[in-house]
């Protein structure tokens, strides 16, 4: 299946197909030199399939995990690209999860004032959410994603077969973002997690999520309005993630706790509780409340004492609210 994405920066195709990792060269259809960025957690079999199609490509591998999404690793990637004499006409390929996509995409946006990059997500989280949309970033001084750029990919290749080697915890971690998208936009998607075995619907879940995100990104590429809906659960979730230490508590796990923190409607909260239990995802965080308050007020969605929060009062219909610092404190005291 091909999903077309149209943005002001560029148009591109998201290919969703089992076995598509072995067809990357044909999908790209370009003779440019290739520089590959991956992480130590990507199984060698997937790296070999990609590198076999580009025998002259150099692969830069960094240590997996959110802790690597920093300015030092970012600089190392740029230095390696320069040493390999990558030109403005060449292509960077990101093979990995959300951290890899963020780092590689940001490097592509900055190197020679911007070169093309192809995103090949290898985790459920990156296939469902971060693999498309053009948001690239690194963390700085404990604040998540506070330095980055909007840089749309040249192409995105999603091969669900890659998930066969993903540990169950990481597979479930990505599903938190799928649940989020169901809650804000697609009741039928949310319902998939309430019935049968959601793993039987994995390809449908991925495709539904990509279409939802495509539609939102096309309307609001730079997150000035509707795209903020995709931050449901993230304001508190990012704070929980920072407090625990990046990598200790996974991103989707923190988003799950963030959704439970922010929700008001008791019936939706019960339904979400049941879904999170099925996915073995956490619902509460024992973090110091003063620390969480400080981190929330430092979030990039904060603005001089107020924070934009995404709320869901009806499944499939998320909306934005502005909370004061006092409301943030009250919510933290209530949990």
How would you characterize this protein structure?
There is one protein chain. This protein has helices spanning 24-28, 44-51, 71-83, 98-110, 124-130, 168-185, 187-192, 202-219, 234-244, 251-262, 266-278, 289-297, 325-334, and strands at residues 2-6, 11-16, 34-39, 58-62, 91-96, 116-121, 135-140, 143-150, 155-158, 302-303, 306-312, 318-324. The chain is globular and about 55 Å long. It folds into 2 domains: 2-165, Rossmann fold, CATH 3.40.50; 168-334, Up-down Bundle (Dehydroquinate synthase-like, alpha domain), CATH 1.20.1090. It has 335 residues and is an alpha/beta fold. Helices cover 43% and strands 20% of the residues. The model has no long low-confidence stretch (mean pLDDT 94).
Sequence-ordered SSE layout with sheet pairings:
Elements: E1 2-6, E2 11-16, H1 24-28, E3 34-39, H2 44-51, E4 58-62, H3 71-83, E5 91-96, H4 98-110, E6 116-121, H5 124-130, E7 135-140, E8 143-150, E9 155-158, H6 168-185, H7 187-192, H8 202-219, H9 234-244, H10 251-262, H11 266-278, H12 289-297, E10 302-303, E11 306-312, E12 318-324, H13 325-334
Parallel strand pairs: 2-9, 3-4, 3-5, 5-6, 6-9
Antiparallel strand pairs: 1-2, 7-8, 10-11, 11-12
């Amino acid at each position: 299946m091909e999903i077309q994405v149209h943005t002001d920066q560029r148009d591109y195709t998201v290919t969703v197909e089992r076995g598509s990792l072995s067809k990357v060269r044909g999908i790209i259809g370009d003779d440019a030199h290739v520089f590959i960025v991956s992480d130590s957690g990507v199984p060698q079999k997937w790296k070999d399939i990609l590198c076999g199609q580009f025998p002259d490509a150099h692969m830069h591998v960094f240590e997996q995990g959110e802790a690597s999404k920093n300015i030092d690793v970012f600089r190392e990637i740029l230095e390696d690209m320069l040493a390999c004499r990558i030109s403005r006409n060449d292509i960077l390929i990101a093979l990995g999860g959300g951290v890899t996509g963020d780092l590689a995409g940001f490097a592509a946006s900055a190197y020679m004032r911007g070169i093309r990059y192809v995103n090949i997500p290898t985790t459920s989280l990156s296939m469902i959410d971060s693999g498309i949309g053009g948001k690239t970033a690194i963390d700085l001084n404990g604040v998540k994603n506070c330095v980055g750029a909007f840089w749309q990919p040249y192409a995105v290749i999603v091969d669900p077969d890659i998930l066969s080697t993903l540990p169950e915890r990481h597979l479930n971690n990505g599903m938190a973002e799928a649940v989020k998208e169901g809650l804000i936009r697609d009741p039928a998607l949310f319902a998939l997690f309430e019935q049968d075995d959601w793993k039987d619907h994995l390809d449908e879940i991925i495709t539904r999520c990509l279409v939802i995100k495509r539609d939102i990104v096309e309307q609001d590429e730079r997150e000035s309005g509707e795209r903020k809906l995709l931050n449901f659960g993230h304001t508190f979730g990012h704070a929980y993630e920072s407090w625990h230490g990046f990598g200790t508590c996974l991103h989707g796990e923190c988003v799950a706790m963030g959704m439970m923190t922010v929700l008001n409607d008791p019936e939706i909260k019960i339904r979400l509780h049941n879904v999170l239990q099925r996915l073995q995802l956490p619902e509460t965080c024992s973090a110091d409340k003063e620390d969480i308050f400080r981190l929330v007020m430092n979030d990039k969605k904060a603005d001089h004492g107020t924070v934009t929060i995404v709320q869901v009062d009806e499944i499939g219909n998320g909306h934005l609210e502005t909370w004061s610092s006092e409301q943030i404190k009250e919510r933290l005291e209530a949990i």
